[in-house]
Amino acid sequence: MSQANPNEALILGAVRTPFGRRGGALRETRPDELLATAIEGVLARTGLPGERVDDVLAGCVSQAGEQGANIARQALLIAGLPAEVPGVSMNRMCGSSQFATHAAAQAVAAGDADFAIGCGVESMSRVPMFLDLTLGKGDFRGFDDLHPRLVKRFDIPHQVESAERIADHWQISREEMDEYAIESHRRAEAARAAGLHTEIVPVSGVDKEGAAIRLGHDEGIRAVIDVERMRAMQPVFRQPGEGGVTAANASQMSDGAAAVLVGRREAAEDAGIQALARFRSRVVVGSDPVMQLTGVIPAAHRALRKAGLSIRDMDWIEVNEAFASVALCFVREFAPDMERFNPWGGAIAHGHPLGGTGAGLMAKVLAGLAHRDGQFGLQVMCIGHGMATATVVERIR
Fold first, then answer.
1. pLDDT band for position 237 (50/70/90)?
2. 281-304: per-residue pLDDT in tens?
3. Which residues form the Thiolase N-terminal domain (predicted)?
4. pLDDT at 87 over 60
5. What is the DSSP code (8-state) at residue 362?
6. SS3 breakdown of the chain: % helix, strand, coil, rounded to 5?
7. Of 393, 361, 389, which is closest to residue 378 (Cα–Cα)?
8. What is the DSSP letter of 252?
9. 60 is catalytic
């Protein structure tokens, strides 16, 4: 890719809020406020005036209640951007804000925008997953309310059952999933204790008693794991001895937001902003809706192929830990250097605020590459009903 291309889409900044536990420190913080904080944070980091932003594209999965009515537009106005700046909200389930970042880059590369923000948010404390207020009773829609024709064609199970089938197919044991989860927490706690998460912008929250606090780290990380308690936990869906997916080896429901500023090379240079990275590839794929979460494998293959690189070229590999079995099936297929695979732990430890995770992981990848003085990073996320997103970035040093 030519570095002289004036229209090349570059990543200029990326930040995220801490990810709070569901019902935890961010339980009283509205999601539109969380997203506004991320937007403010990325503009403050880069020094770009808000009036220079041409569009804000936000991922959000449960677009109801405080997350309804186009949260992108509401958040950018809360953040103080001019009324002339537009915003759009999009839902590609867990890949929503990674896709929003892709869409921002595509708008910039096409010449439709000089600067665009790809971002995302989810408050799983305040807007529970699949909440649909239009039903009048706060009922839930999702895996239990599929169209009969869809059920006849695929009989899509709950994601937890798909995670179990992945473990069966790749012969991943309960013990292996638990050990992986323990290591995720260990790595996440080591990174937190060392202050490595330079991508995090602290936010206001409350403690258990409701007193105001300042949260500057991911709340779900456990410094000490009760291994005996973990071993005793029952599978979420299957009977004991017949399944291995538990709450302890799956991602945590969380509250959080993130934002990535993308800019056209020439416009960024004129604004005096030093770019962090360039996109080497952006990919979204469909995959088997029954296995549902295995799209990370074809997505990574396609992203690496489009980038002209291999898994061995990656200095940082970030696979969203929706379930331990998803990360481990990726490991089975690619045999990556495990020191480069989720080096700071993943969603099992730090949480997974659905629509906010994709942009959050992008910010984490860029912070990790800078810390290690690495060049190439791969980010991959599985998506419900059988999809996946993948991005290969090249750090500009």
1. confident
2. 999 999 999 999 999 999 999 999
3. 10-264
4. yes
5. H
6. 40, 25, 40
7. 393
8. P
9. no
For 300, how many CA atoms within 13 A lie in the half-sphere containing its CB?
A: 28
Q: Which of 185, 217, 350, 352 is catalytic?
A: 352
**CA–CA dist 121, 127 (Å, integer):** 11
Q: Using the structure block, give the residue that is written with the tokens 């005793």.
A: 232
pLDDT at 239: 84
d(CA 138, CA 308): 48
Q: Does 382 participate in catalysis according to the annotation?
A: yes
Q: Are 258 and 117 in contact (CB under 8 A)?
A: no
pTM to 2 decimal places: 0.96
156, pLDDT greater than 60 = yes
CA distance 37 to 133: 26
Tokens representing residue 58 in the block: 């936000």
Separation CA 227–CA 245 (nearest Å): 15
Q: What is the pLDDT of residues 115-146, one digit of tens each?
A: 999 999 999 999 998 665 444 444 445 566 78
Q: Is the pLDDT of residue 187 over 50?
A: yes
Catalytic site includes residue 371? no
Catalytic residue among 60, 119, 329, 382: 382
- Residue that is written with structure tokens 């880059």 in the block: 105
Which ranges of 22-64 would DSSP assign to H, the alpha helix? 31-46
Please report, for residues 96, 263, 299, the alpha-carbon distance to residue 120 in angstroms, rounded to integers and kept in the order given. 7, 18, 21
**Choice among 60, 94, 119, 329 that is catalytic:** 94
Q: What are phi and psi of 154, to 5 degrees?
A: -125, -25
The number of beta carbons lying within 10 Å of the beta carbon of residue 283 is 21
Q: What is the mean pLDDT of residues 104-117?
A: 98
Closest CA to 321 of 342, 336, 290, 294: 342
Helices (H) and strands (E) in the chain, counts: 12, 12
Element of type H or E holding 383:
strand 376-383
Q: What's the CA angle centered on 82, arms 277 and 198, to 5 degrees?
A: 35
